[in-house]
Amino acid sequence: MLDYDKEAERYDASRGGEPRARAAAEGVLGLVPDTARSLLDLACGTGIVTRRLAAARSGLRVTGVDLTTEMVRRAAARLPGAVVRADARRLPFPDGTFDAVTSVWLLHLLPGPEGVRAVVAECARVLRPGGVYVTTVDKAAAHNVGSDIDAVLAARPRIRAVDESAAVEAYAAAHGLVPAGRARFRGRGQGRSPRRTIADLRRGWFVTLPPGDPRADVFAERLAALPDQDRPRPDPWFTLRAFRKPGEAAAGRRAGATGRSRRTSPR
Q: Which residues form the domain of 63?
């Protein structure tokens, strides 16, 4: 697992910066009903996406949450007074507080299915009736774009992804949330090059090949043998799922969310 206090300084630049943040915010907002007046953004990180969510709609009050001290500090600079340090598995908000809850690039980081279940349960709890939960799913799979880098990494040890779409849907259903749309957005600036992948490997990006593991050296050597060491391969496409908490405003909000989701998918 990466140390996100250390990652905070380089996080934006190493993950596509503003172009990726814009794509993520547009994808998320395409699934959030226009009637939403309050939104909670879990694992807001540096606030680079959260700020865009807040700026996109004048009537939308956005609150960011992150567990990492340095991430919270940076996010708070972008959204003064609107960022809270908290664990997404134990949110410090009363039941039914928000019209929308989002978690972009969070679920895949959690320690096993029980962590994902806990976060989904909390999202359902703090949602108002008719509210929508929007989350990324299948994060690791998004990075497999069929490149020569992926061919090299195909033989690495694997564990089952905790953010598989079907599993997240089942956890949502267990807490009364029903599917309300899906979308995809491009991870702009996140196409991997061999050299960048080796650097990520060395600093623990791939959890099954931790730094110091002799197998990591084997994969680094194979990656170093690839051509065009600094040429980025294609960008990933990330998947969003939306789930609605049934309630009085459900019908109108569901129609709004599913109608917009079609516009965020690639053509």
A: 4-142+160-190+235-264
The single-letter DSSP state of residue 155 is T
| Strand order, beta sheet including 61-66 | 83-85, 61-66, 38-42, 98-103, 127-137, 237-244, 178-186
- Sorted by sequence, the CB contacts under 8 Å of residue 71 that are 6+ apart come out as 4, 5, 8, 11, 44, 45, 46
DSSP tag of 133: E
- Whether 97 and 48 have beta carbons less than 8 Å apart is answered as no
**Angle of helix 113-126 relative to helix 165-174, nearest 10 degrees?**
50
Q: Which of 103, 74, 63 is nearest to 6 (CA)?
A: 74
Q: What CATH number corresponds to the domain at position 137?
A: 3.40.50.150
Residue partners of 153: CB distance under 8 A and separation at least 6: 197, 206, 219
Longest dimension (CA), the chain: 59
What are the tens digits of pLDDT across the range 206-243? 888 888 899 999 999 999 999 999 999 999 999 999 99
Q: Residue 30: inside a domain, yes or no?
A: yes
**How many structural domains comprise the chain?**
1
**Which residues are within 8 A (CB) of 114 and not within 5 positions of it... i.e. 6 or more apart?**
none
Residue 90 is assigned to a structural domain of this protein: yes
State if pTM tops 0.85. Answer: yes
Residue 118 lies in a domain: yes
Alpha helices in the chain (DSSP H): 4-14, 17-29, 48-56, 69-78, 113-126, 139-142, 148-153, 165-174, 194-202, 214-224, 250-261
Tell me if 227 is assigned to some domain.
Answer: no
DSSP characters over 21-38: HHHHHHHHHTTS-TT--E
Interval 45-76: pLDDT, tens: 989 999 999 999 999 999 999 998 998 999 99
